[in-house]
Amino acid sequence: MRRLFAWLAVILLLPVLAAAAAVVAAIDGKPLVERSDAISPIAVAQVRRLLANHDPRHQQAGAVDSVDIPANLIDEGINYVAGRFLHGRGDFALTDGTGQARITVVLPGRYFLNVTAALQPVDGKPAITRASLGKLPVPAALANYLLSKAIAASGFGSEWQLALDAIQDIQVNPGSGMVTVTYQWEPQILDRARAVALSPDEIRHLHEAHQSLAALLAHRAPGSPITLAEILHATIPADTDPVGHGRAALLVLASQLARIDLAGLVPAAKTWPRVRWVMISLGGRHDLAQHFVVSATLAAWSGEPVADAIGLYKELDDARHGSGFSFIDLTADRAGTRFGELLVKKPEALMTRVRSGLQDGQLLPVFSDLPEDLHQKEFRQRFESPDSPQFKALSREIERRLDSLPLYQ
Fold first, then answer.
1. pLDDT of residue 21
2. Sorted alphabetically, which keywords does the UniProt record give (predicted)?
3. What is the residue range of 391's domain?
4. 276, 218 in Cβ contact below 8 A?
5. What is the DSSP annotation of 213-264?
6. Quick one: which of 24, 80, 113, 275 could link to 105 by a disulfide (CB 3.0–4.6 Å)?
7. For residue 167, what are the contacts with CB-CB under 8 A and spacing of at least 6?
């Protein structure tokens, strides 16, 4: 009888032991991917070129086209998604006609969940052909099933299926570092993207923020000056849902400063009241208000890496083709990024400070001694590149000045 009980105990414990062994095999003591969450200006330039050459607003229904996507852009995209939504890190590389994706998620107790997946075209569609969790191999069929379920659970199942249906073929080209995707364009893809970009609550917040800004400026003379601090003090604070309200206020203000019609994102905005054009300034300069607000909006909606990357790309592009690289503009970018991050991470603290009154000097540190108008030749002579010790030293000085402001402490 004792043997019988022992045998039954072993049978009952087997599933538990197997599950425990699987957990042990899946969890690692070291991260597989270690990198920063920064996005390079190169990636921003690549996205701009792809959108310019394949603008979805100008695609004809049923038209077949091909797009070459750089592997390094996919790499930075995976790292951004891993950092933004999983608080981890990720990477991607092409080897022998296969895309290799890796993601590391930090677990409590300094343990790590390392996920690897080999991606290859199967019948012209992207598919996982090999996967593992730590040392635990995962059957390809199960990995693809879990991926589809995860996408469906996130609420993007129908959009994912639309994208898959549009893809006609995929070619992996390790030699050129490109993944070539041939697709048949369907306008539903853009319609669905617009529909899921903003929730009903976010659209309601945008409507309220738009009305608030229009009312604030309605009695001012067209083109009259107003400081950014005044506008933020009047439009940002909120008693309920401060993050949602604040993000909407920033997006409305960014659209006004950049002269972008919100109706392109929210069709209903066509009927919203017109916001009077006034001269919004920060530190006495209109361009610094633009830099601050656009960066704050990007940080609040997409995260700090996106805001920093776009700000740096803009200055490098100005050095080549525009007014020249400006560390003053970069300071306004970083100040705006910090403001947007503060809104998302510590909204109550931000609301308290904004309600107490704002002045330009609280948003932006002293900047008049920072170099600007550096065209490409002069920029290279003085700073070489964003990776040089000289550039990094000045960047640290900008961060030190921002750290000295109570708002960003």
1. 46
2. Signal
3. 198-408
4. yes
5. HHHHHTTSPTT-EEEHHHHHHHHS--SS-HHHHHHHHHHHHHHHHTT--GGG
6. 113
7. 124, 125, 126, 181, 182, 183
Per-residue confidence (pLDDT) for residue 154, from 0 to 100 = 79
Question: How many CA atoms, within 13 angstroms, populate the side-chain half-sphere of residue 360?
Answer: 15
List the one residue out of 152, 113, 157 whose CA is nearest residue 131.
Answer: 113
Written as six digits, the tokens of 221 are 């003379």
Q: What is the pLDDT of residue 238?
A: 87
Please tell me the predicted confidence (pLDDT) of residue 186: 83
Is 191 in the same domain as 274? Answer: no
Q: Do 242 and 384 share a structural domain?
A: yes
pTM value surpassing 0.90: no
Candidates 87, 84, 86; CA nearest to 301 is 84
Q: What's the confidence (pLDDT) of residue 187?
A: 81
* Residue numbers of the chain with a pLDDT score lower than 70: 1-26, 196
| Cα 277 off chain centre by | 29
Structure tokens at 65: 């086209």
Structure tokens at 124: 């012209």
Token representation of residue 3: 């043997």
Q: Which residues contact 43 (CB under 8 A, 6 or more apart)?
A: 72, 73, 76, 309
CB 198 within 8 A of CB 266: yes
What per-residue confidence (pLDDT) applies to 6? 45
Same domain? For 256 and 324 the reply is: yes
